[in-house]
Amino acid sequence: MTSPRFPEGALIGVLTTQPLDRVLDYRAPPGGCAAGDHVEVPFGPRKVTGVVWGAGAGDYDPAKVKSAIRVLDIPAMRAPMREFLGRVADYTLTPMPAMLRLATRAPGLTDPPGMRKIFRRGHGQPGRMTPARARVLDLLEEHDGMGFMLGELADLAGVGSSVVKGLVASGAVAEEEAPRDVPYPSLDPEMPGKALTGDQAMAAARLREGIKAGRYGTTLLKGVTGSGKTEVYLEAVAACLAAGRQALVLLPEIALTAEFLTRVEARFGAKPAEWHSGVTTTERRRCWKMVAESGAQLVVGARSALFLPFADLGLIVVDEEHDTSYKQEDGVLYNARDMAVLRASLEKAQVVLASATPSLESWVNVQAGKYARVDLESRFGPAVMPEMRAIDMRGEEVPSGSWISPSLKGAVRERLERGEQSLLFLNRRGYAPLTLCRACGHQIGCKHCDARMVEHRFLKRLMCHQCGETAPMPETCPNCEVTGKLAAVGPGVERITEEAQALFPDARVTVLSSDLFGSARALKARILEIAEGAADIVVGTQLVAKGHNFPKLTLVGVIDSDLGLQGSDLRAAERTFQLMRQVAGRAGRAEARGTALLQSFQPEHPVIRAILSGDEEGFWAAEAAARRAAGVPPYGRMAGIVISSPDMQAAFDLGNRLARLDAPLRRIGAQLFGPAPAPIARVRGRHRVRLLVKAEKTAPLQAALAEWAAQLRLPANLRLAIDIDPQSFL
Ligand SMILES: [Zn+2]
Ligand SMILES: [Zn+2]
């Protein structure tokens, strides 16, 4: 597709990142420009950047239309990318300037190319070590050879730039001239991959076929943990690179990136480009530009990598496609899995959705024939899926303040005697979810939210899991001022750790919870130690369910299998099923067959029974039928509307006015529920009121929502967020 060219002085429409609801008219700069070009334009007294979106509308006084200043020396935004941004904006009801911000989120795009000074770890040692110098050196070590700009390094280490310069003088930090934005080392798709088993080879062949066809297609790659999904989709990456196109692999968690990069290096001889919040700004800029200039063949990243300016994208892999972290819950509310499918369809690219426990949405799309499906049945190596059993907690004698049943205790003891590892799983961070005053019954809550403060005993703090507020653990009840009566109620992983250590004083007990590690790197290091046998009993949150390998682990004990079954979330059953399967899949990955024991007070619950029987297809069919009957996603459509304000009454008033103005929604046959207080009715000091819209699958929901919301002008301190296909119902 060639973009129309505009000669100097021609009227052009420029989309900027300024919060305006329209594309602005300018005149083409000297030398002319083309649709998609990044340009610098005058905006009031300032200069801002934007993208030429097409011909100008011409509805402005021609005498007042200013000329664009220049075309930036970066590759133009391709037509499929412009269409992608427009379609995501329409789908998520996001203003275009916000979409453009998402697509140009790299620093220094307006800078001229050339040389720049960068700073890395040098060979020398500082004459005298100070805390400030140590911070700089630790940071450089942590980023493993990566170069930083001076200001960036000083900022991240929290020191003045003179500290860095002092380190340069001693040779502890090296200052180098480096060309900006060099291409990434080239990956060799011809290098031999790991030997594949029969069904892995078959699965890889099917994915390669899709790539070779050079057209759009989505494949669900389903395989139990350890079945070799990664090896298989790396074959699709190899085929894509061999065809001269670019590939993108999305991972749900930064902590998984390091291990994945190592696998890519082993397979293709070099590391790929990285894009996530842990990457330095210098590297982000390099990644953005190289992706646009075909200087990066493969990008591994978080969901926002979907908005990188690929020159020729041939494959998107969404690993752990069911993972809830693919849904962006702040700013532009999009689901990266669904938007990956949209982008691939515009780029004539293939999508691989990999999971051991697919989302119901993907399962339904396979049933409907929209997605292909490839199954990996056998496990990589001799191990098989663990044996799963419930422990009926109604028949167990568990003293109050304890949560590990005698049956589970016995199973852990057996593992200890055999020198094997056990995992005790509880999806609750901290020590106790509730701190209660035994004198007056007061529950300690967050000052800013309607959430309870969670005790984190290891950090010696109370913490709000909604807003992150922390406070020291009080001695005295803040309500009745009686001392010594505050009691922890219910278990978190820290408390289970304490219980396990008391039950097995000679065992090495460790806890894996994201809040206990300062950095992704520290967490990763600890996971490796545990995998190599540094602990006998691991107590962990859902963090352990996410793709980490523990070869010595043969027992998984789920402390509270019923935890996810309560609550009003329509995906509660699906989430519980997925999480339990993933956690159980941690057991017995090497030689020994593992066991998973699920403590439950309702072992006859259909979800628990489905988990135990391992009848996945049966579970999905039953869950799909229930959703179809209720007309909820994926068989119906939903949108969540959250109104927030420092003033509760103002939020409710707006909600009620919106509810009365529901004609645009009624016209499409949609139902409106609410306003009601959101499940967590106050977050960060803002009161939250929620409305829920439910419509048939084919109803033009976005258009109706846009018309509906446009009827009201929002007062200054009220916010309204529309979430299409809400995942969480907070
Ligand atoms: Zn009290
Ligand atoms: Zn809070």
**pLDDT < 50 stretches:** none
Largest sheet report: 7 strands, parallel
Shape: globular
Q: How many beta-strand elements?
A: 31
Q: What ligands does this structure carry?
A: zinc ion
Calculate Rg over CA atoms.
Answer: 28 Å
Gap between N and C termini: 43 Å
CATH class label of the largest domain: Alpha Beta
Spatial sequence of strands, sheet with the most strands: 12-13-11-14-15-10-16
Describe the structure.
With 730 residues, the chain is an alpha/beta fold. The protein has 5 domains: 5-83, GIY-YIG endonuclease, CATH 3.40.1440; 115-179; 198-376, Rossmann fold (3-Layer(aba) Sandwich), CATH 3.40.50.300; 387-433 and 490-624, Rossmann fold (3-Layer(aba) Sandwich); 636-724, 2-Layer Sandwich (Alpha-Beta Plaits). Helix content is 31%, strand content 24%. It has 20 helices and 31 strands. The strands form 8 sheets. A 7-stranded parallel beta sheet has the order 12-13-11-14-15-10-16, sandwiched between helices. Strands 17-27-26-18-25-24 form a 6-stranded parallel beta sheet, with helices on both faces. The protein has a 5-stranded antiparallel beta sheet with strand order 3-2-6-5-7, with helices on one face. Strand 14 (313-319), helix 10 (336-347) and strand 15 form a beta-alpha-beta unit. The chain is globular, with a radius of gyration of 28 Å.
